[in-house]
């Protein structure tokens, strides 16, 4: 049994936390379900680090930027230094993978 994720609400519908191979639209929906106050730093992070995944180095067009999410290196989403030092831009695939491994850092 995995720990429940504390960075997002679990989508309804019997979704298994940490399951791999989820459809992209489900991943996107999950990350987009975050409350607005958690979206504010997202634009900053994208502006600082660019539209590129820090893990797989995949680059994204502006129109595909919803596929990029902001990961907090220390696992604390309230820690948002303006220089972006606690942020890492990860694509939805890598971000899901990152947390699926049980690492919150
Ligand atoms: Zn990636
Ligand atoms: Zn994360």
Structural features, described:
Strands 1-2 form a two-stranded antiparallel sheet. The chain is globular and about 35 Å long. The protein has one domain (24-100): His-Me finger endonuclease fold (3-Layer(aba) Sandwich). The chain has helices spanning 24-32, 40-49, 92-100, and strands spanning 68-72, 87-91. With 105 residues, the chain is α+β, with helices and mostly antiparallel strands. Bound molecules: zinc ion (2 copies). The site of one zinc ion has 8 residues, from strand 2 and helix 3.
If you consult CATH, what is the topology? His-Me finger endonuclease fold
Question: What's the structural domain tally?
Answer: 1
Unreliable spans: none
Q: Using the coordinates above, name the CATH class.
A: Alpha Beta
User: Got a strand count?
Assistant: 2
Radius of gyration, Cα only, in angstroms? 13 Å
Which series of helices and strands comes N to C?
HHEEH
- Mean pLDDT over the full residue set: 82
Small molecules in complex: zinc ion
CATH architecture: 3-Layer(aba) Sandwich
Q: Structural class given helices, strands, pairing?
A: alpha+beta
Note the total helix count.
Answer: 3
Separation, N- and C-terminal Cα atoms: 20 Å
Order of strands in the sheet with the most strands? 1-2
- Strand percent estimate: 5-15%
Which bin fits the share of residues in helices? 25-40%
The backbone outline, from C-alpha atoms, is: globular
Main sheet characteristics: 2 strands, antiparallel
């Amino acid at each position: 049994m995995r720990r429940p994720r504390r960075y997002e609400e679990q989508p309804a519908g019997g979704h298994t936390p940490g399951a791999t191979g989820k459809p992209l639209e489900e991943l996107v929906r999950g990350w987009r379900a975050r409350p607005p106050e958690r979206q504010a730093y997202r634009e900053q992070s994208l502006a600082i680090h660019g539209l590129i995944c820090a893990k797989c180095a995949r680059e994204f067009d502006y129109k595909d930027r919803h596929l990029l999410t902001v990961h907090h290196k220390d696992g604390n989403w309230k820690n948002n230094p303006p220089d972006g030092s606690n942020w890492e831009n990860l694509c939805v695939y890598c971000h899901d993978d990152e947390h699926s491994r049980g690492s919150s850092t």
